[in-house]
Amino acid sequence: MTLQVTDLTIDIAGRRVVDGVSFDVPDGARVGIIGESGSGKSLTALAIMGLLPEEATAGGSIRWNDHELLGLSDRELAAVRGDEIGIVFQEPQTALNPIRTVGRQIAEPIRIHDGASKKEAWERAVKAAERMLLPDPERIVKRYPHQLSGGQRQRVAIAMALVARPRLLIADEPTTALDVTIQAEILELMRDLVEDAGMSLVFITHDLAVLSQIAEFGVVLEHGKVVEAAPVSTLLTSPSSPVTQGLLRDATATLWRPEGIS
């Protein structure tokens, strides 16, 4: 299955915030969308999922498996969200329900999309927690979000997105709020899970160092427009746009440098 975004535009309150963005995500590919704050990268991700704010209007085309997603109703999109396309947001604390155990929240997509029984869904939730390398998974799934660390909550959020076995995962800056060590662990785990499942990935970030750890191809945005699109190795070694050059300088100034940069 392939995602094709063509000439995507997004307007909010009469102001164009995404202007003519185009990129493809072939089956099994890992594509990064990178840019500074306000570049339109997160809005692009929300448009794919049909989750734009009410005041936003989108134009152009977003095709998934040769079916147009723009213009579908919430009911029609519900058949795609979670089942075919999953999403992980930046801050799991706001994505997780504080009054439900994390195991119940992991199990819910299994019951909705696979029609599994409570018992089967719970067993699969425990296995999902185990795959995410959460400690003592049978015990941790009985906990509430506030009882977990930030890194553990993000692992739960990723488990929720992957448990229904989507063909495409969208990850919107899922490690930004975590320290560098936990970031690296979760990025490696996410990359391995995506590769093992043969799914595609759209990874949103402002950090070229992070992008280098997980994506093969990068699309660079500035003020809602694509300013460069190239293999990540090219973005790291010979970026052509001033925006990418600036992102590379920022990346090499951190303690955690992207691969290939000394």
TrEMBL record:
Main localization of the protein described in the UniProt heading: membrane
Topology class, membrane: Peripheral membrane protein
Residue stretches making up the ABC transporter domain: 3-248
Localization of this protein: Cell membrane
Record PROSITE patterns: ABC_TRANSPORTER_1 (PS00211), ABC_TRANSPORTER_2 (PS50893)
Keyword Transport (UniProt): yes
GO cellular component: plasma membrane
Keywords: ATP-binding, Cell membrane, Membrane, Nucleotide-binding, Transport
Record flagged with keyword Cell membrane: yes
Molecular-function GO term, any one: ATP hydrolysis activity
Lineage: superkingdom: Bacteria
Xref: InterPro entries: AAA+_ATPase, ABC_Ni/Peptide_Import, ABC_transporter-like_ATP-bd, ABC_transporter-like_CS, P-loop_NTPase
Protein family: Belongs to the ABC transporter superfamily.
PANTHER family for this protein: DIPEPTIDE TRANSPORT ATP-BINDING PROTEIN DPPD, OLIGOPEPTIDE TRANSPORT ATP-BINDING PROTEIN APPD
Protein name: Peptide/nickel transport system ATP-binding protein
Organism: Microbacterium immunditiarum
